[in-house]
Design brief:
two-stranded antiparallel sheet, 19 helices, 72% helix, 486 residues
């Protein structure tokens, strides 16, 4: 009887698949007759809707592939730029996030954690700042975009990653493989240009719009591959695979020619190795004090040498590296200084609520000083942002906005480092995941002194997902300790 019922069910399933295929073929034929060329996406949309309603965890994990491979599409009629298909999916997940806020309470009570609190404060201040914006429509569009880039990744991510560590491993491994594939494609594409240093920005397209955001994305994944090599739970073959992934991502980073990503990733990895080796914090602090002291004592001579540096970026590899300290003639460096000065001058006019979220690029032109302008400076308001994850919020959301960003960053690092030291003797696998994520975030926010990419799904989704993983592991440890005392 059971075999007959199973056979009947299988026959019905096949029948429904055949009927669905015939219906889709008919719809597709009619649509092509009316020159509707996107109907072939219907099965994909239906599949997304199925997972959205019945298994959003799988849809969330699928974004680890979808986000890196999404392509930016500009909708000129509405002055919009969307990453397709990732941002529409994130918007759907935002609706689900808001529904869960209204209909249910968090099953693990993560609303009390400092990461959650600082994110909530930051987002509430975005809304308050928008009420006083110099360009309200721009600011509310910015808030909506930031909502779908930030809230689903974190607030849906925490319960998913808390549920089982396998979801953390799935997510990180899927993202890792996706970035490795893109790094290989970009390297092959770069080879067709003869590895011309000046054309490195083309190699990562169409997946990443330029070499700097590509480098930032790689810096978020390189520590994941690197520290899994030291995971005692991994078999030797797995460690070899992670090592190969690390080499491919590092090659991609080198060829990206992103100086900020080079420097931030190198510094972050050194910090991670020091922590992994168990070097005591007082020695690390002593080293920082010595470096800072040496810099302060030789400040004038260092600045003199930087001003005399005439190496410029993108001329060749050697000159590109030496140009990092050129603050006089290197176009990339001097234009950044122009943007930073403009952001500081805007903050003087709007110190409390800022000029409004998303408004910097439209209002900074009059705040430029002639001595800092370069030949690529513009007065039209079409050349991007403040090039800083800290000065951008200062100009757009005022001092409280910048402080809320700093509070998030501090909370991430305090949580990450404390968790690692508590977990390393309890659960080595979780400890390695926590350390690798914390170091990846360190690499990004060091990079954030020179660039800001949290308005892009390519960076925002992994950053806030990493924040969710840290929070989930914090509560796993909390419940573990609670249960062990019973």
């Amino acid at each position: 009887m059971i075999n007959k019922s199973n056979k009947l069910l299988a026959n019905k399933t096949v029948l429904w698949i055949v009927i669905a295929a015939i219906i889709f073929a008919a719809i597709n034929t009619i649509a092509m007759g009316f020159e509707i060329n996107f109907i072939f996406l219907l099965p994909f949309v239906l599949l997304l809707l199925f997972y959205y309603f019945f298994s959003y965890e799988k849809l969330y994990l699928a974004l680890a592939v979808i986000v890196p491979f999404s392509i930016s599409l500009e909708i000129l009629d509405y002055n919009l730029a969307l990453s397709i298909p990732s941002e529409p999916i994130l918007f759907l997940l935002l609706i689900l996030t808001l529904y869960r806020f209204i209909s249910t309470s968090s099953p693990i009570g993560y609303a009390n954690h400092s990461i959650t609190i600082t994110i909530a404060i930051y987002f509430m201040w975005l809304i308050i700042s928008s009420l006083f914006s110099q360009m309200p429509i721009v600011s509310w569009k910015f808030v909506l975009a930031r909502a779908w880039l930030m809230l689903p990744a974190f607030f849906l991510g925490v319960p998913i990653f808390f549920k089982d560590i396998k979801y953390q491993k799935y997510f990180l491994n899927i993202f890792l493989i996706s970035l490795v594939v893109i790094a290989v494609i970009s390297t092959i594409k770069h080879a067709t240009y003869g590895f011309d240093f000046k054309l490195s920005y083309l190699a990562c397209q169409p997946f990443y719009r330029d070499h700097t955001i590509y480098g930032a994305a790689l810096s978020l994944m390189i520590p994941i591959a690197f520290f899994q090599i030291f995971n005692s739970k991994n078999k030797f073959n797995n460690k070899v695979v992670y090592f190969i992934c690390f080499l491919l991502l590092t090659l991609g980073l080198i060829l990206s020619s992103s100086r900020a990503a080079w420097l931030s990733t190198a510094v972050a990895l050194v910090v991670g190795i020091i922590i992994l080796l168990g070097i005591k914090f007082r020695y690390i602090l002593l080293g920082i004090v010595v470096v800072v002291g040496a810099f302060m004592m030789n400040y004038q001579s260092i600045m003199f040498q930087m001003e005399r540096n005439t190496n410029v970026s993108r001329k060749n590899a050697a000159s590109h590296i030496r140009s990092i300290t050129n603050i006089s003639t290197d176009l990339s460096n001097t234009e950044r200084i122009n943007r930073w000065v403009s952001a500081l001058r805007i903050s003087k006019d709007y110190p409390v609520v800022g000029s409004g979220p998303g408004t910097y690029q439209f209002i900074y032109a009059p705040y430029q000083l002639p001595q800092y302008q370069t030949y690529i400076s513009t007065n039209i308001g079409n050349k991007g942002n403040a090039h800083s994850e800290f000065l951008g919020p200062l100009s757009e959301t005022g001092i409280p906005g910048m402080l809320s960003v700093i509070a998030i960053v501090i909370s991430l690092f305090i949580t990450g480092f404390k968790l690692f030291f508590k977990l390393k003797h309890l659960d080595h696998e979780r400890a390695i995941i926590v350390l690798s994520i914390t170091i990846a975030l360190l690499a990004y926010f060091l990079h954030g002194f020179l660039n800001n990419y949290l308005e892009s799904d390519k960076i925002a989704f992994p950053v806030w997902s990493y924040a969710a993983i840290l929070t989930a592991n914090y509560y796993w440890l909390y419940w573990y300790n609670k249960e062990s005392k019973v």
